[in-house]
């Protein structure tokens, strides 16, 4: 039986939309716009607040900007070495830096991968730009990377020396780290010592091994089995050389949760930037001001493109639902496709999910016409929950 939110004694129902993007179809901002339009078509009096969310991956800067942060653009080095325009967000001394902006898969030409040579150098440049803009704390969202270099490029851009046996800088990418002979982190930007860096990620993998960055995520970046083995060995060598340079903490960080995030850039952030690891959605909810928005809401609508088992492991809808459930709020979800049983949704704190595939002819239509279909779904939610 559907729970309804008829509105309080003080006025009409209040709805908080805190959904992530529908990847490949709609940004988180567009999801909020379509859901708002559908709700108001049925309940024009509803008070709707939109707070697009992200879990640290691609779309994190956009979510921050939608919440009132200022967007700053800068030219940096892309994953293949060519210049790209990347952005970070800044408000009151807090910067939100998204590595996918500078080193993400979406920056590669269609069908082009560079698993051994793609570099995070541009992400280091982006972090330096945030420091230049006055950031005193940095939320470093990682995910959607084209790279598997352990953050070596990022550290080099911030002043670290990573040299081969001839004393020359090692070439970009994870593969060339096999030739790393000496590492010196003493030249890292001194401003980092006074800045709090939070590594925001939805994965807790270690750097190497069966659950490490190359094995688990390398194939998504075009790595063949031989490439995975080469990258795993190179990153393990990278950690050994850093251990010679800075001591046993380099080895400890390689095993730490989050070290394997985004091709191992999590490791670079932990070992070189003094970052602390937190689940990305938890960090972003704090930064975006979710708690006060939740207090004002009677109903929370969350969602993402696919609600599946991955959703339950640190993705944005699970984080939103957990926080809302703790506050005693009713939560429903919108999605492109649904691959979770009602019992699993209930355990996550979601009372019902509304997939586009319920009203689309097929998955292809759900993707191609996601906007209009989502608006129709929102009308159904309004009829179910706000009537």
Topology:
Elements: E1 14-17, H1 28-42, E2 47-50, H2 60-66, E3 70-77, E4 83-91, E5 94-98, H3 99-103, H4 121-132, E6 137-141, H5 152-157, E7 161-163, E8 182-184, E9 196-201, H6 213-217, H7 225-246, H8 249-255, H9 261-272, E10 276-279, H10 280-288, H11 290-295, E11 299-307, H12 316-326, E12 330-338, H13 342-348, E13 352-355, H14 363-368, H15 370-385
Parallel strand pairs: 1-2, 1-11, 5-6, 6-9, 9-10, 11-12, 12-13
Antiparallel strand pairs: 3-4, 4-5, 7-8
Helix pairs in contact: 1-15, 7-8
**In percent terms, what proportion of residues is strand?**
15-25%
DSSP strand tally: 13
Helix percent band = 25-40%
- What do the pLDDT scores average to? 95
Order of helices and strands: EHEHEEEHHEHEEEHHHHEHHEHEHEHH
User: Roughly how many Å apart are the termini?
Assistant: 14 Å
- So, CATH architecture of the largest domain? Alpha-Beta Complex
Examine the coordinates and then state which fold CATH places here, giving the name of the CATH topology of the largest domain.
Glycerate kinase, domain 2
Residue windows where pLDDT falls under 50 for at least 5 positions: none
Tell me the count of domains. 2
* Overall SS class: alpha/beta
Please list the strands of the largest sheet in the order they lie side by side.
3-4-5-6-9-10
What's the CATH H-level superfamily name of the largest domain? Glycerate kinase, domain 2
H/I helix tally: 15
Q: How does the major sheet shape up?
A: 6 strands, mixed
Could you say which overall geometry the principal axes of the C-alpha atoms support?
Answer: elongated
Supply the CATH class of the largest domain. Alpha Beta
C-alpha Rg (nearest Å): 22 Å
